[in-house]
Predict the 3D structure of the following.
Amino acid sequence: MSERFVRPSRLDGVFNAVVGRLTRLGLPLAGSRVLAVRGRSSGEWRTTPVNPLRVDGDRYLVAPRGNAQWVRNLRAAGEGELRHGRSVERFRAQEIPDAEKPPILRAYLQAWAWEVGRFFEGVDKNSPDERLADIAPGFPVFRIRPGGRS
């Protein structure tokens, strides 16, 4: 498990606040959702905008900034919610091994590079599988499936 983490800039904070607000109002940006997960220490709900991804029928959450707080909380809780307007989708999460990440990272970059490409430093959707495998430990990926207590 990599300890890679890219701290959000002020501009990132503003962008996330706008995207989160629009998504909460039911106007998601390009399919974004608000991830809600219980804090690992406080038990309080913590929220952040995320970009769910579908690859070969499975759904994933990718952490472009690495080992962010939402990643740590999701590892501890194992479940959460994806919110969009009044819609709430409860899910269970399973972190996937690094060896399975390259096609997911490629699909994520194909869909979301316009927003998160700067976090991938010299890697893009056309990078060879070997390069994607090299960076995989720095990008947590969770397979999400319906369910959960939340």
